[in-house]
Amino acid sequence: MMAARPPDDATLGALLAKIERMRGFLITSYKEPCLRRRLAVRMRARGVHTFGAYAAILDRIPEEYDLLLDALTINVTKFFRNPETYAVLRERVLPELAGRRRAVAVWSAGCASGEEPYSLAILFAEQAARQGTPGARSHVRIDATDLDPGALEVLKRAEYQAPAVEEVPRALLARWFGPGPPYRLDPAITRLVHPIRHDLTGEPPPQPPYDLIVCRNVVIYFDRPTQERLFQKFFDALVPGGFLLLGKVETLFGPVRGKFLLEEPRERLFRRP
Ligand SMILES: C[S@@+](CC[C@H](N)C(=O)[O-])C[C@H]1O[C@@H](n2cnc3c(N)ncnc32)[C@H](O)[C@@H]1O
Prior knowledge:
This protein is an alpha/beta fold. 42% of the residues lie in helices and 16% in strands. Strand 8 and strand 9 (269-271) form a beta hairpin. The chain is globular, with a radius of gyration of 20 Å.
């Protein structure tokens, strides 16, 4: 026997359609349980119990759209999150990219408040120093994109509290950050990173082609068709031989899976042939 659906379900569809219309943002790309949880948080905050009543709040108080977006975008991140993943990048990916005789383009997609793209920038700066060509670091461009403008503001300030930097090896902390807290990043690092507000569900990649696309702990919130479309976009946006890195609990599926080579299964590192 099918479980009875809650009576408010019809108005959920209407509410989501309204948000898409008003904001041009594909909210229906998110997994439904995730959407329901986030909507419940905002509805509680506004003291309403039905999706219809919440739609009326959006009409009356347009700032509520931003608060909902804020609830939907979970910005948890830190520098060198999953250090073993960064070790694979350092040992397997960067030496090869650094050997390419042209500027290297990287995309940190869903970069939150900047810890991920700045960690990548630090790796590239270290690689250039190891090669004895510190000037080479300026040949890297890291596009750092996120839907959440508040997170990008933090990225632009480039100042971080102690918990954000706890995985940063001490030598790197001393070399690339000012004394803290807050720990301020060296401009030699920040200048490699270009913040761009960007919606992964609806917009084309910002400045393809890329040598490396890092998209970690983001696609997990999207439904399956959205993920498949995004993986195809990533494939098309990579140069032949380019790398795609997903989060530790994420993986490729759909027709595009067979097009990528699996470079390092445990770290979810793939490669366009
Ligand atoms: C959990 S954080 C991941 C941060 C970083 N990649 C990491 O792994 O540490 C997820 C980020 O995805 C962003 N995000 C969610 N939906 C998005 C969308 N449609 N387009 C772009 N970014 C999105 C959120 O704003 C949030 O900053």
